[in-house]
Amino acid sequence: MSVDWRLVSTAGGAILYLLFAGIILARHALQERTIRWLVLYLAVSFLWALGQTLARLNWSTFLPDGLLAQTASCGVLILSCLLLHLSRSFLRLERAGLGWWALCLVSVAAVAVFDANLSILPSALWANQGWDIDRQRLAFGALVVGWGLCVGGSTFLTAKVYRDSRQPLHRNRIMYWPLGLVFTAAGDVLLFSDHMGLGNGFRLVGTLIAVYVVLTYRLPDVRQMIRRIVSYLVIAFLAAGIYTAGFIAIDYVFQTAPGYSPLLAGAVTALVLAILFQPLLRLIQQLVNRLSSGSAYDPGRALREYSLSISNILDLDRLATVAVGLISQTMEIRRGALFLVHHEKEGDGGDIFHLQGVRGMEGKEPRSGILSARSPVANCLRREHQPLTQYDIDLLPRFRETAADERAWLTSLGMDVYVPIYAKGEWIGLLALGPKASGNRYYDDDLALLSTLADQTAVALENARLFDDLKARNEENEGLNKELTVANRELARLDQAKSDFINVASHELRTPLTQMRGYAEMLYEMCHDDSLTPDLTSQMTGGISRATQRLEEIIDTMFDVSQIDTETLALEPSVTSVEMAVSGAVKNWATALEQRGQALIVEGLTEMPPITADGKRLQQAFSHLIQNAIKYTPDGGQIRITGRLLGQGMSPQEQSVEVVVADTGIGIASDDLERIFEKFYRVGDVMLHSTGKTKFKGAGPGLGLTIARGIVQAHGGRLWAESPGHDEETCPGSEFHVVLPVQPRHLQAMDSTVFMTSMRRG
Ligand code: ADP
Hints:
CATH topology of the largest domain: Rhopdopsin 7-helix transmembrane proteins
Mean pLDDT: 84
Strand content: 5-15%
Radius of gyration: 51 Å
CATH class of the largest domain: Mainly Alpha
Distance between the termini: 116 Å
Helix content: 55-70%
Low-confidence stretches: 686-699, 749-762
Structural class: alpha+beta
CATH architecture of the largest domain: Up-down Bundle
Number of helices: 23
Number of strands: 17
Bound molecules: adenosine-5'-diphosphate
Strand order of the largest sheet: 5-4-3-8-7-6
Largest sheet: 6 strands, antiparallel
C-alpha cells in the first residue's frame, strides 16, 4: 500500500499549524502586533491545510460545489499577503503601509473575480487560432503576479531594514527571516506546479522558521556560526592535506627501509596530526576571528590598563573622555558616553532618575534624559547589576511599558548597550556604548568585561562627583564672598556717608544756631538795660526769623537726601508744565540775579507740551541748578535756560522734554562732571566757589545736585553736566541737561495720588 504523501503533508500541516497557534495563544499575550499576525497566519494556514485535507478525502461534499477548489488557489495568495504583513510587523515597520494593503486587496479581488467568476464572465475571454485567453488562465496570472509582489515585497522590506539597521543584534535577527521566506516561497512554487506533498512540506518548514524567529529573542549569532563553520572547514581541509602530504613523504622516504609498512606511516602521520590539532584549531579560529571582525583583545590587559588610567582622575569630563575612550579603543566601538545618575524626588511622589550627560571624547555633552522610577528600563538598570542592550529594550516584552519619550531619548542616543555603574549599592552612573566598528554584536565576554570595567569606574566616578560637588560649592562660596565684600564696601560707604552727614549737618546747623543765640542774648541784655527800641527789636527778631528759616531749609535738604538715599522720595504727580516749574525756580533767585548783575535768558519753554510730574519737586530741582549757575558765574555773567521737545511726531509716551541750564561761569573739570552729583562732593573750598564781588549764600553743603538728580530720576528722567573744563579766569561755562519723559509710565497710573517711588540710581 503506497502512502498518500499529499494527504499526510496537508493533514500533518493542519495539525501542526493548529498546535502552534494553540501553544502561542496559551503562552503569549496577544499584546504584541507580531504575535497577533503570527497567530492569524497560523490560523489561516490551518484552515487552508484543513480544506486541502478534506478535499483529498472527498469529504467536502457538504460544501457548495467547487468552493474548495477555488479557495485553494486563493489561499496561497492570501497566505502570502499575510506573510507580507507579518514580515512588516516583524521588521518593526510602524507605518500603516496602505500601499501594501491595497496591493493585497487588489490581487485577491482579481483572483476572486476571475476564478469564482463573480462578474459572470464567459469562460473564454478571447480566442484566436489555437491561442486563447480564458478566465482560468487570467485568474492564475493574477494569482502569480499578486503572490510574486507579496513575496518580493517581503524580501525587499527585509533587505531594506537589514541595510538600514545599525544594531548587530537586530541585524542578526533579521538575517533569519529570509530563510523562512525562501522555504515558504519554494513551497508555494511547488504547490503551483502541483507538487502538493513537497510544497506543503516546504511551507511547513518556512512557517516553523518564522515561528521560531518571532518567538525567540536570543537567536544564535549567524556571524559566529559562519565563523565556526569556516574554521572547522579550514581545519578539516588542512588536516586532510597534512595527513596526505605526511603519508606520501614518509612513504617516499622509508619505502625501501626494512620492516616498513604503510600502516606505520599512516599511524605516525596521524600521531603528529593529533598533537598538532588543538593548537592548530585555536590558531585558525583566532585567524578567522581577526580576519572577519578585525578585533581581538586581551580582557586582563584591558582591565589593568583601564584601572591604571582612570584611578587618579578627579575631573568628570576627563574621566568620561578617558573611560569611554579606552573602552572604545579596546572594543573598537564607534561612540560612547558617560552619564551621571541623579535620583530626584518629584512633587507628585513619583521619583525620577535624571541622567546627566558628561562631556566626553567628542567634546560635546550627550543629550541628558529622564527616566521615571517606574520605567522598566530604570528598574532593570537600577536593580539588575548587568548590562542592558538596546535590542532587549526594543524586543523584550518586559520593556513594553517603557514610555514613548523615554524610548525616543534612548533611540536618539544611538547606543547598543548600557552598562550601569553602582557605588555602595546605589545606581550612580551609566556607560552607554555604541555599535562596534566591525559590525559585530556585543558577545557575553564583552558584556562581562564591560561590567567589570563599570565596577572599576564606580570609585573614580564617585570621587569625581564629590570633587565636582566640592568645586561647585567652592565656586558658590567664592561668589558669596564676593557679594559679602561688595556688601561690606557698601556698608563702609554708608557708614562714611553717615558720618559725613553728621559732620556737615552739625557744621551747617551751627551757623544759624549761633546767630539765633547771639540775637537772643542781645535781646536779653538790652531788655535788662532798658535800651531796647522797637527798631532794634524788629531787627533782632527778623534775624532770629531768618536763622530759623535757614535751619528749616537745612533740615528739609537733609530729609530730601535721606529719602533719595533710601529711594523713597514722595511725589505728587499732576499735569503741569516745565515752564511753570522753571519760572517758579527763577522767582526764588530774582534778587540774587539782580545783585550779581547776571542776565537770565529763557527760551523755548512755552512751546513745550504739558508733562506729568510733581511740579513742586521739579521747581526744587531747577532751583538748585539755577542757584548753582548764579553761584559759579562771575558778576555780570549770563544764564540761559533753553527747552526743546525730543521725539517730535512720536506718541506722547515716547516723547521727552530737554531743558538745558547753561552759564558762563567757572566750568567743571572733566573728572568732576560725574562726581559733583555725589553727596557732599564739592570742588575745593565752598567759600571760594562763590565767584564775583558779591558773595552769595546758598543751600550748599554739596547736596544741591544730589537732590536735583534724585528728583529727575524719580520722574524717570536723566540729569547730567557738560563743560569744556574748569577755569576761574577764562570762565568756560557749564551746561546742565535735564531730560524728562512727557508721560512717565510709572507716574500716569497713579495720577495725583501721593505715592512712594523707587528710583533708578545713576
Ligand atoms: P554746593 O553747590 O552746595 O557745593 P552742589 O551739589 O550744588 O553743592 O554742587 C556740587 C559741586 O558742583 C559744587 O561744589 C561745584 O563745584 C560744582 N558745580 C555745581 N554747579 C556748577 C556750575 N554751574 N558751574 C561750576 N561748577 C558747578
